[in-house]
UniProtKB/TrEMBL annotation:
Organism, scientific name: Eiseniibacteriota bacterium
Residue span(s) of domain Histidine kinase: 200-431
The protein's name: histidine kinase
Entry superkingdom: Bacteria
EC number: 2.7.13.3
Length: 432
């Protein structure tokens, strides 16, 4: 260690010709103290990669005593896969460059890798030529390990955070579902009481209406030579009674929507029948019909009359939305539900379940479409945007419970890309 020490001191001081007295001696002795007391490994390497000086901290950090390592190649300290660093480092030091805080891995004498932060500077002779490199190596293994652990904990933390977020989402979803179920229950209760009320009122009003109609017809027949005013008045009265009667009939339909008589039906032929029933309205409004019926539909257990009524209501709504013509597209298809959606889930309480095969019916128009305000009220009884005397606002209010009683769903929205509306009715493919 002594011989090595002498060499170390020369290199550390960067002065080879000190005479041991005067200010130079003081500088040199200060540098000696730094060399010996430093906590970081200090060592010098010749430009051909041989270790020429080695301090005590270097012995502690790398595990080699000075007398063993001095004269040995620096590559002893460098792992196989990092040997390329040696060449680049020595080349840049030889060019006079300094390297600061270069973090890398080196090997201890027992082969254990350690994390080090290296700072290397060239040392020069009196002519300013680079003669060797002086390296300061700080053992940062503990810091690195702590960082790696922090990284692992941070990954674990973000995993936990993601898990919590997923749980929160699921919680929110189930809260929303509970709310919507509550809403449906309230709505159903409301509809039921409206239904009962409607049935009572309808029965009370139907008979007086029949009497009035009879009286109008009687007058029309018995009045001799009625003037134009009288004819007009009688016609208006008849129309008013007929209209009142249609409202009453709507109410009755609405209140009796709970009773079904089902049998195995072919959805396509029900759609065809409904189209036949609205043919007159379609022709009158110059509406072109496109039929896209799937040929492989299995039969469905349906109440024929009621479902025809649903299809007719949807088609008439489409016609009404296209007063100056357009296209009515009627589609049927069989579909396997692949993904969860508004009515599709995994639980028994969901109307449809993922993986189930259903029959989808779409009635699409190129009409006005539906605005946001209308959308939320579509299925409300008596909600209509049609001029007074045109719609009763019961059409969809009747459709919804009918479809629901069949275990199906009905949704109405705008077509993708706008330019009209689309009603989608979905049935289970068969119900025992
Ligand atoms: N295809 C559609 N395009 C645009 N708006 C529609 C469509 N279908 C329904 N609507 C809107 O929904 C409202 C309610 O429809 P619903 O069938 O319940 O009643 P209505 O058609 O107004 O009257 P009713 O059917 O009793 O004669 C309509 O007034 C209309 O504003
Ligand atoms: Mg309608």
């Amino acid at each position: 260690m002594k011989g090595a020490g002498a060499e170390q001191k020369d290199v550390a001081a960067g002065t080879q010709n000190l005479n041991g007295s005067g200010p130079d001696a003081e500088v040199r002795s200060r540098l000696d103290a730094v060399w010996e007391l430093a906590n970081d490994a200090l060592f010098a390497v010749s430009l051909d990669g041989i270790i020429v000086a080695w301090n005590r901290a270097a012995e502690r950090i790398y595990g080699y005593p000075a007398q063993t390592i001095i004269g040995k190649p620096l590559s002893l300290l460098v792992p196989e896969d990092r040997r390329h660093e040696l060449e680049t480092t020595i080349t840049s030091i030889a060019r006079g460059a300094t390297i600061e805080h270069f973090e890398t891995i080196r090997l201890r004498s027992d082969g254990v890798p350690i994390d080090v932060s290296l700072s290397i500077a060239p040392t020069r002779d009196e002519k300013g030529r680079v003669t060797s490199a002086l390296a300061v190596a700080r053992d940062i293994t503990a810091i690195k390990q702590a960082l790696r652990q922090a990284e692992v904990s941070s990954v674990k933390l973000s995993e936990r955070e993601a898990m919590l977020r997923r749980a929160l989402l699921a919680l929110r979803k189930s809260l929303e579902e509970t709310k919507s179920t509550q809403l449906h229950l309230v709505q159903a209760a409301k509809l039921e009481s409206i239904g009962r009320l409607a049935a009572g009122v309808a029965h009370e009003v139907k008979n007086p209406l029949a009497v009035i109609l009879f009286a109008i017809d009687y007058l029309a027949e018995t009045v001799q030579r009625p003037d134009a005013n009288m004819v007009g008045a009688l016609n208006d009265a008849r129309e008013a009674v007929l209209r009142a009667d249609s409202v009453i009939r709507g109410l009755l339909e609405f209140s009796t929507a709970t009773e079904l008589t089902v049998s195995k039906e072919d959805v396509n032929s029900l759609l065809q029948k409904a189209l036949l029933l609205v043919r007159h309205a379609l022709t009158k409004s110059h509406i072109f019909v496109v039929e896209e019926f799937a040929s492989d539909l299995p039969p469905v257990m349906l109440d024929r009359t009621k479902i025809e009524q649903v299809f007719v209501n949807l088609m008439i709504n489409a016609v009404d939305a296209m007063p100056s013509g357009g296209t009515l597209i009627v589609r049927s298809r069989r579909e396997q539900l692949k993904e969860p959606g508004p009515d599709v889930g995994y639980r028994r309480s969901d109307p449809f379940r993922v993986g189930q095969t259903v029959i989808v019916i779409e009635i699409e128009d190129t009409g006005t479409g539906i605005d946001e305000a209308t959308r939320s009220r579509l299925f409300d009884p008596f909600f209509t945007t049609k001029p007074p005397g045109r719609g009763t606002g019961l059409g969809l209010a009747v459709c919804k419970p009918i479809v629901a009683l069949h275990g199906g769903t009905i949704r109405i929205g705008n077509r993708e890309g706008g330019g009209g509306a689309r009603a989608t009715v979905i049935f289970q493919s068969i119900r025992p």
